[in-house]
Amino acid sequence: MRLQTIRHADNRTQAVLATDSRWLPLPATDVGELIRHTEWRGTVTDIRRTASADDYLEQGTLPLASVVTSPRKIVCCGHNYRAHIREMGRPEPEYPTLFAKFADTLAGPHDDIELPDIARQVDWEAELALVIGTTCRAVTSAQARDHIAGYTAANDISVRDWQRRTPQWLQGKAFDATTPLGPAMVTADEIDPADGLPITCTVNGEQVQIGFTDDLVFDPAHLVSYISQFTTLAPGDVILTGTPGGVGAAAVPPRYLSEGDTITVDIERIGRLRNSIRFLPHDAYITRDKELAAYVEH
């Protein structure tokens, strides 16, 4: 099953089932809300069985939003691909290196990534992400597999100069709307990262990253199990599993993104993220959204 979230002209979002070249609208604002309902699979099956041709939309007629728009938690794992660990000159970790993001870091799979000009060293990180399907607390790795609703792609755009200001990475990982997520969540019964799905990243058409999802030190089930030991994971929560080798920070000399650069992330059987970088003067950045401007004024 391939689920996406579309964005209507009035900025309202809606979950859809992607079938061939069509979308079937579903009764949820996004994929995260859909899977919070215990019987969501049956609901989708019933809607599909009873839908008429008029109920469908043509794919591509509306833009895609982040596949999950408001997760309770976004937990990310760093240093998790063996090739990336080697290029960064680090030993293979005994435990997952974890950090968190906020829901407002998420962006659509084709959105421009707008950053303030205080961000100097902006890097790419192609990642496999998973979406939690059922609440889990202190589960084993074997049990964790049953709690994964599906898999999607992410780009953990990282502002390295801010990330390196302290030993804590948060400030370099949590700029607003800098983590594209999508274009679809493919349900876990249809794909298995242990099969070694190719994951690539290109910048302006030049391949900079290639890896395979069986190169993870800590696989998705292990991450779900480990994280669930200290915090409850709920339906719609998102876990980013790490990036392969080839990040800009590891290049010699280091390479960072510039105005207008286009970054494309592909994961086989999941799909493609394609986003362009835009830098805004800081004043323009903080007033680009009327709601944000009103918040700042108060």
From TrEMBL:
Coiled coil: none annotated. Residues 73-277 form the Fumarylacetoacetase-like C-terminal domain. The keyword Methyltransferase does not apply. Keywords: Hydrolase, Metal-binding. SUPFAM superfamilies: FAH. Gene3D superfamilies: Fumarylacetoacetase-like, C-terminal domain. The keyword Metal-binding applies. GO terms for molecular function: hydrolase activity; isomerase activity; metal ion binding. One of its GO terms (biological process) is carboxylic acid metabolic process. Belongs to the FAH family. This is Fumarylacetoacetate hydrolase family protein. It comes from Nocardia uniformis. The lineage of its organism: Bacteria, Bacillati, Actinomycetota, Actinomycetes, Mycobacteriales.
